[in-house]
Amino acid sequence: MSDRKALLREAAGEDCILEQESMKKHTTFHIGGPADYFAAPTTEEGVQRLVKLCREMEYPFYVIGNGSNLLVSDEGYRGLVLQLYKNLSEIKVVSQNTDQGGLIWAQSGAMLSVIAKRALEAGLTGLEFAAGIPGTLGGAVVMNAGAYGGEMKDVLVSATVLNRTGEILEVPVSELELGYRRSAVLANEWIVLGAKLALADGDKETIRGRMEELKRQRIEKQPLDLPSAGSTFKRPEGFFAGKLIMGAGLRGYTVGGAQVSEKHCGFVVNRGGATAADVRKLIADVSARVYENSGVTLEPEIRMLGVFL
Question: Catalytic residue positions?
Answer without folding.
Answer: 181, 231, 301
